[in-house]
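User: Predict the structure for this protein chain, please.
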Amino acid sequence: MKTLIKILCLSVLWFSCESLTEPEDPRQTFYDEYCTEDYVELWGTYYDIATTFEFDVYDYAGVIPKEIACLENLTLLEITGPQSDSFGDLVGQIPKELGYLTNLTTLSLVYNKLTGQIPKELGNLTNLKILSLSGNDLSGPIPKELGNLSNLESLGFSENEISSEIPPELGNLNNLRHLGFASNAIFGEIPKELADLSNLESLAFQNNNLSGEIPIELCIFSTIENLRFWNNELCPPYPDCFSDYQIDYQGSSPQDTSNCP
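Assistant: Here is the predicted structure, written as structure tokens:
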């Protein structure tokens, strides 16, 4: 009996120790598997992992290889599509591994054919100043984690298929100057927290499914030249601070008020 009790006690202690084991770091696991050489091959070209450089290219075709995240010192990743069906485009999803590139200050993947959701891991890129994903086929939600990007100055989602509410956490982006949501399927009310973005110079809401009333707190943006509410489901009364041009493009892109009280 004493022997059995000892065995049981040792078993409990072993399982307790196992439960205290630190979980694996996915970033380190990725490096151990994909970044074991001094270089990495991307689109047929070899790049030194330790080099600090900018990756600025035009008209690259295919998927974004996750191995690009091995370039720890990468400061700029800009791959612009050709805006024409006659040439190649990036396709597939944005790899979540891009969230490991914490030295990035610019991430621009505009005018490609990227699909799937915006990875929440991009919220780890706290040195980012520019995040532009416009002109793709991205869907799903806007990650609330993007509200962690305190150095961000420009954030663009326009011309995608994003279908979600606007996360109020984006109101934390105190350095933001440009914010574009235009031409998606974004729904719900405009969060009043966006009024905290005191440095905004442009703000585009047009061509979505936004509903409810326009928060009066947004009147601080009424003098912004590039402010657009057109073609949504926003309900009157509209704050007097906004012009007809800003609300419905002088009647040519009116609000759908059929579901308003």
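The CA atoms of residues 117 and 140 lie 5 Å apart.
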